[in-house]
């Protein structure tokens, strides 16, 4: 599936989502998303990851905590 192929760099994800690169890296630090890394260490995301990032942002805006989101994502 093309939606699962991790080829999109963080700058593009930032443009597509309207979030800062720092916010996206925070979601990774909190173990909410898991981008692949190139040999040079560049983060690579899929379109599926981008949808997850948007869902995370919406839930955080609605008052959820990252611990709750981690549990929710683990169950899906």
TrEMBL record:
- PROSITE patterns assigned to the protein according to its UniProt record, in alphabetical order: HTH_MERR_2
Q: Name one Pfam family in it.
A: MerR_1
Concerning Gene3D superfamilies, the annotation shows:
1.10.1660.10
Gene name of this polypeptide: tnrA
Query: What's in the keyword line of the UniProt record?
Result: DNA-binding, Repressor, Transcription, Transcription regulation
Cross-referenced SUPFAM superfamilies = Putative DNA-binding domain (SSF46955)
Please list the residue ranges annotated as the HTH merR-type domain: 7-75
Does the keyword Transcription regulation feature in the UniProt annotation? Answer: yes
Superkingdom: Bacteria
Name used for this protein in its record: HTH-type transcriptional regulator TnrA
């Amino acid at each position: 599936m093309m939606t699962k192929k991790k080829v999109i760099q963080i700058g593009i994800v930032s443009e597509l989502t309207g979030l800062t690169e720092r916010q996206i890296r925070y979601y990774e630090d909190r173990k909410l998303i898991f981008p692949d890394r190139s040999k040079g260490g560049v983060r690579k995301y899929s379109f599926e990851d981008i949808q997850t990032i948007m869902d995370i942002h919406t839930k955080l805006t609605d008052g959820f905590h990252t611990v709750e989101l981690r549990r929710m994502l683990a169950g899906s």
